[in-house]
TrEMBL record, chains A, F:
Pfam families: HupF_HypC (PF01455)
NCBIfam families from the UniProt entry: hypC_hupF
Signal peptide positions on this chain: none
Lineage per the UniProt record: Archaea, Methanobacteriati, Methanobacteriota, Stenosarchaea group, Methanomicrobia
Species this protein is from: Methanoculleus bourgensis (strain ATCC 43281 / DSM 3045 / OCM 15 / MS2) (Methanogenium bourgense)
GO molecular-function term, one example from the UniProt record: iron ion binding
GO biological process: protein maturation
Name assigned to this protein: Hydrogenase expression/formation protein HypC
InterPro entries listed in its UniProt record: Hydrogenase_HupF/HypC (IPR001109)
Family: Belongs to the HupF/HypC family.
UniProtKB/TrEMBL annotation, chains B, D:
SUPFAM superfamilies: PurM C-terminal domain-like, PurM N-terminal domain-like
Organism ancestry: Archaea, Methanobacteriati, Methanobacteriota, Stenosarchaea group, Methanomicrobia
Origin: domain of life: Archaea
Protein name (database record): Hydrogenase expression/formation protein
Stretches assigned to the PurM-like N-terminal domain: 38-150
Gene3D superfamilies in alphabetical order: PurM-like C-terminal domain, PurM-like, N-terminal domain
Family named by the database record: Belongs to the HypE family.
A GO biological process held by the record: protein maturation
Coiled coil: none
Domain PurM-like C-terminal per the UniProt entry, residue ranges: 161-309
PANTHER family on file: CARBAMOYL DEHYDRATASE HYPE, HYDROGENASE ISOENZYMES FORMATION PROTEIN HYPE
Record-linked Pfam families: AIRS, AIRS_C
Automatic annotation (TrEMBL), chains C, E:
PANTHER family listed in its UniProt record: HYDROGENASE MATURATION FACTOR HYPD (PTHR30149:SF0), HYDROGENASE PROTEIN ASSEMBLY PROTEIN HYPD (PTHR30149)
Protein name: Hydrogenase expression/formation protein HypD
TM region positions: none
Keywords attached to this entry: Iron, Metal-binding
Domain of life: Archaea
Any one GO BP annotation for this protein: protein maturation
One Pfam family this sequence matches: HypD
Family the entry assigns: Belongs to the HypD family.
Molecular function GO labels: 4 iron, 4 sulfur cluster binding; carbon monoxide binding; iron ion binding
Length: 75, 331, 343, 331, 343, 75
């Protein structure tokens, strides 16, 4: 289960509400479960951020795959 | 047996209901009739091909980003005429209005219908209005029927192996906009319905090359339209996942909603199968029109049956007509 | 797509024996199906689906309890996923009651706040990914007219039970990436079987498969992490803490399984006011499954949907008999949509 | 302002709503358009007069003595075409069905539509179906639109002083049958709706003499139809009370219900104004048709305005278009 | 029509002075209008309408009480006549509640029997013609969930009040044929004014007018009976007895009139269980009329609708201000429909 | 007020229910307020017979008018 989508935090309101961007789509999400700052990436599930992602990994998934694969192959 | 919501959502289930409703001896006036379940009927009259079609329009909310029920009611019928190759001439309009409906909203709807008519030179010439008591009906229903004239009739069953499949623009815009609104996801104006009258777009394409089949991917979306076209044409279709045009915002929203944008309605798009040699020219013609800027060749017709998708990763899967209206999912 | 192809090539080069892996996540199943992944895997590598779809594993008695709440006149808020799941007498969608699809628990609380005269019950399904969001909502003091029907389940107890059965010849597990996002994967290290945490892009899954195959080739077992951009060994500590502040594990039945010890989450006594079962005197009854449905075996990984004699005949996506045919992620439904024609 | 039930019941109040709904620049396709509010529109196409009309049909109960909603849906549109002088050629059908509707009932309705089509040589060639969820809609709604061809178009505004007013049969049968059923008066099968397709009846009359104006007295009944015809024609009409044909059972029921049978719908009747010299011949033609056996000359067109009735006692009073749907009264 | 013409000729031959007669029956007004009778009367014979329409004379407070019952969730059963009468906040038709049009009180009882879980209130309007039917129903032991809102009125007290005012220069009265069918006409004999009981065919009314004119010519006053086929001096004794077994007269307001002593009927204490006012604690409030509406004068026979400055402008059948414009039998409505164009 | 219509009693059921004919239209009415036999005429108001009419008068209204008028003129 558990569809979750990465999004960039654009703004934080009232402590636990974040305005995030899923990719040309801004939405409010709840930040109760993470400590996060504007500009960071989060993983969002059922309207809640459930984890912080590093900015680079949020932006460049393809590159991440490449690196992980490369690292693994080197082992 | 009782009618249920799935019976109205297109696809195989709806087919069962349609078998009941279309069980008429008097179903054809000498051309293409009800039995074809094409976008419209054709009636040969005095050497002309009169195209005739109808749709009921119920949409919630009635005003949404990018349009309203009035624009949909006009475009839905204009587009069905256009899908048959018909230049839209005249529309009828049957409104069923719940008691308590705001007259100012009605004025907006009518103005919006007028604007859509203006885009394609058709007129709304006859109508009927009923008011139902509070409690008997939730929201306004608008039926339109339309008359067009086709120089050359285009069917939805004319796909031929080798044909290029073209969609005239981004997929899923209307359905995702509506779905989000309806389920209480507030996307504000970030996602717009694509509702638009397509006659002038189609007219240009028809003048440019050989279009073997057309259909507007409304209820059931692209998935339903392409399957219906393939099935009726007794061919297979292969779609290239990476060629499918989507608006990024629509993809994001579809991801959030857990809904496949291929399965939701478009109200300003056409799917066509065209002769391979004419594909590029037709694509260029479409792209030169404001409603066709994102047109793309998305697949190919093959011998066989079924619609499959070649995925980005190199896999292959079926594109199935959806069962029932999609529902937002979180898992 | 170059990366994907590269990983796929690696996978093909590594698989030199019959390998069966199980994933326990509906979203993995959906991603695999959507990308047509099975069509490009080495022919001797099989992926089967375990009990990872919260819709599939919700027993009929819990759906019936939700329907009881509808009948009592409550507003029932739910994820769209549950809408069409058949209970003993119809589904939430066909109940004719005031059933609202919500994005998450916070939207259900919002409804309760906006309609103080009505009773609002949120049907709280989901694994460890979802439970913390509900915990956060409960800790934020929702209004008195709000409550939840807790149907949460925990993944590790079910895995433990599966491994004890020993029925399925599984060489390893692909662990649910988003469950592990929250929980980390420390608690999976006790299982003596190759495991890899994977994400949900086709490449994520392929990477996970490569890592699992490597463990098998090496004859080792450990938990590898193919989804490091979201998952760490300890997970989201804050989320775990909130979850256990509000919920406590208890023994509960899974659809297709017997009662599994400590595999469910219920509200702790101090939150009884938000417990719809307490509040409305709702009992969750055990309902026997259709005799020929083998969902239980499918969910345990010992049978494929096509082994069921109802599959595609009596049981279709339109007239689902078992839960596996209902959920978008149900193994039988996905099998029906994407695989039946290939047969 | 909010729409209320009176807005849907015909007459002056409905006129206000219609002004909003028909406020379109694109309202005419070169012939007779929406602005005329006639029984249908006329579109000149390739030297032919295409007649086009639409109606929404909502009726409770859906099965009633003498017919059902399917028969009404077909006849309502056939008759509007006929009123314009149009031979019906093709119909569209838009059904909106509430979830839970019985499929067996749908089969009956469709069979009944087929039978009505059979009576006049028209076909139902295109359709659309929507299913609405339980609670959003109470009862099935059927929209039909129709295309006909008119050799000579007949308007509803062509009355000329001296014309004889003819009705093709007994008045009020449908409305009283429905009203009684709806309000819980159980008349069993004692009162039958007159719902019938009138094309062949009208065809015979057209071939016999000079018909200056026609209208079917549906919503608002005879009272509404004759007033509309008189007002649009800018003439007065005098009706002879004793000449009006009523079924005795309908009169009895109307008395019991406290409802004026002139104010309720007919679904198988035509009101026409004919040249005085042709009146007897046309009357004879009508009476030779099964649906015209009780036809009668009921009045005369005069200079001036207003519709008046010469009563049996020798008095004079106005016949006014009704306001709102009639309601049973006991006092 | 020979008879009608004959009677009409007689009438024309008899009227040789200005005569104004009042009828007190909406059905008389409707019959007169429908037959266009006024258009054939001698020009010096005028017929005016008194307070004879039960819709017109029902005060707004009683409509409001019915609306209160709708709001309390009762099924409100009513004659169609009341459906569109405006109360302070809309009409029964626009209330959105469960309002059922019934043919008579027995059908309302039937609803109560068929829906034992619901409260059913019958809005019991009408004169002496109608009240006995309600009495019969009450005496037949209707179920407990049934009750009535008694809005009945009696004709003679209103006539007495009118005669006491002396405002209108009336030469005589046409008495309501169906009220007298039940009550007979003995109690009218005390009024020192020419009176004739008349039926409802145009000929009945013409006969009644002839008889009234004859009394005036003779300079006498008595009660003549032009409707002998239905009316006798003693009326329907059984109906009267039942009526007084169940109801008792009390002082009550009429729309357009002050409180008239003993002019209303209320349930006797032993039937309090069927009294909706008691049962639901409904109070009937006095509501002041629109300042410019002269319905009261119209109903008292001292003004014609066309004397009202709202008539046909602010007040039309579609936007009625006063009750006389609401009822089918309201003098203003009938005037508007049948007479306004003649002006 | 008080629309009432004459009708002929065709049948009496359960004591107080009558099947009557209003003229090509049969209906059940309540007989609580009158004592009446089959073949007699009644005046019906809100579903109740409120008085008995003689058979001749129920059948021949016109003739009744004639007689009353004639009698009156003779006086
Ligand atoms: S096909 Fe249907 S019956 Fe068979 S296992 Fe799957 S869900 Fe159960
Ligand atoms: S016209 Fe209207 S306001 Fe004037 S008296 Fe009549 S009801 Fe009252
Ligand atoms: Mg179409
Ligand atoms: Mg269509
Ligand atoms: Mg369409
Ligand atoms: Mg119409
Ligand atoms: Mg086509
Ligand atoms: Mg018409
Ligand atoms: Mg029409
Ligand atoms: Mg019509
Ligand atoms: Mg359609
Ligand atoms: Mg006409």
């Amino acid at each position: 289960m558990c569809i979750a989508m990465p999004a960039e935090v654009l703004e934080i309101k009232d402590g636990n509400i974040g305005v995030v961007d899923f990719g040309d789509l801004k939405q409010e999400v709840r930040l109760d479960l993470v400590d996060v700052s504007v500009g960071e990436f989060v993983l969002v599930h059922v309207g809640f951020a459930i984890q912080r992602l590093s900015r680079e990994e949020g932006l460049e998934t393809r590159e991440v795959f490449r690196q992980v694969h490369a690292a693994m192959m080197e082992e | 047996m009782k009618v249920n919501l799935m019976h109205g959502a297109g696809g195989e289930v709806m087919g069962e209901l349609l078998r009941v409703i279309t069980n008429l001896r008097h179903n054809n006036a000498g051309g293409i009739g009800l039995e074809s379940l094409d976008d419209g009927a054709v009636i040969p009259l005095n050497g002309q091909n009169i195209v005739f079609t109808t749709d009921n329009h119920v949409v919630s909310p009635i005003f949404f980003p990018g349009g309203d029920i009035g624009r949909i009611a006009v475009c839905g019928t204009i587009n069905d005429l256009a899908m048959m190759g018909g230049r839209p001439v005249a529309l009828s309009c049957g409104m069923v209005i719940p008691e308590g409906f705001d007259v100012a909203d009605l004025e907006r709807i009518v103005a919006s219908m007028d604007a859509a008519l203006d885009e394609c030179g058709a007129s709304l010439v006859t109508g009927d209005t009923k008011v139902l008591e509070r409690g008997a009906l939730d929201a306004i229903i608008i039926n339109t029927a339309g008359i067009g004239v086709a120089e050359r009739v285009v069917r939805d069953n004319g796909l031929v192996p080798g044909d290029a499949i073209i969609v005239s623009g981004t997929i899923g815009d209307h359905g995702i906009a509506i779905m989000a609104h309806r389920e209480g996801f507030d996307f504000g104006g970030q996602i717009h319905s694509d509702v638009a009258p397509l006659w002038t777009l189609v007219e240009g394409a028809l003048a440019t090359g050989d279009i073997h089949a057309m259909k507007d991917p409304t209820r059931g979306g692209f998935a339903n339209a392409i399957n219906e076209m393939a099935k009726k044409s007794r061919v297979g279709v292969v779609i290239e996942e990476e060629a499918l045009p989507f608006r990024k915002s629509v993809q994001s929203a579809a991801g959030m909603l857990g809904i496949d944008p291929l399965e939701v309605a478009n109200e300003g798009k056409v799917v066509m199968g065209v002769a391979p040699d004419d594909a590029e020219a037709i694509l260029a013609a479409l792209r030169s029109h404001p409603y066709g800027r994102d047109a793309a060749i998305v697949g190919e017709v093959i011998e066989g049956s079924h619609v499959t998708m070649r995925t980005a990763i190199g896999g292959e899967r079926f594109i199935e007509p959806p069962i029932g209206d999609p529902v937002p999912r979180v898992c | 797509m170059a990366v994907g192809k590269e990983i796929l090539d690696t996978l093909h080069s590594l698989v030199d024996q019959e390998i069966t892996l199980m994933h326990i996540c509906g979203t993995h199943e959906a991603a695999i199906a959507r990308a047509g992944l099975r069509s490009v895997l080495p022919s001797n590598l099989k992926i089967v689906m375990g009990p990872g779809c919260p819709v599939c594993i919700t027993p009929q008695g819990e759906i019936d309890a939700a329907l009881d709440l509808v009948e009592k006149g409550c507003i029932v808020a739910t994820y769209g996923d549950l809408l069409r799941v058949p209970g003993s007498k119809g589904s939430l969608e066909s109940s004719g009651g005031d059933v609202r699809v919500v994005q998450g628990v916070h939207k259900a609380v919002e409804i309760a706040r906006n309609e103080p005269g009505r009773d609002v019950v949120f049907i709280s399904v989901g694994f460890e990914t979802t439970a913390p969001t509900v915990a956060a909502a409960i800790l934020a003091n929702p209004p008195e007219n709000f409550s939840i029907l807790s149907c949460h389940r925990l993944v590790p107890p079910a895995m433990a039970w599966l491994l004890e059965q020993g029925e399925a010849s599984l060489q390893g597990f692909i662990l649910p990436g988003h469950v592990c996002t929250v929980m980390g994967y420390e608690e999976y290290e006790r299982f003596p079987v190759p495991q890899v945490v994977a994400g949900f892009e086709p490449e994520d899954i392929l990477l996970g498969l490569v890592m699992a195959v490597q463990q098998i080739r090496e004859g080792v077992h450990r938990v590898d992490n193919a989804y490091p951009r979201a998952v760490s060994r300890e997970g989201n500590v804050k989320a775990k803490r909130l979850m256990y502040e509000v919920f406590e594990p208890f023994d509960v039945e899974w659809r297709g399984f017997p009662v599994i010890p400590k595999s469910g989450l219920r509200l702790k006594p101090e939150f009884a006011g938000y417990d719809a079962q307490e509040k409305y005197g709702i009992e969750i009854r055990h309902v026997d499954k259709h005799s020929a449905c083998i969902c239980d075996k499918v969910l345990r990984g010992v049978a494929r949907p096509s082994d069921c004699r109802l599959f595609g005949k009596v049981c279709t996506p339109r007239t689902p008999v078992g839960p596996c045919m209902v959920s978008h992620e149900g193994a039988c439904k996905i099998w029906h949509l994407y695989e039946s024609k290939r047969a």
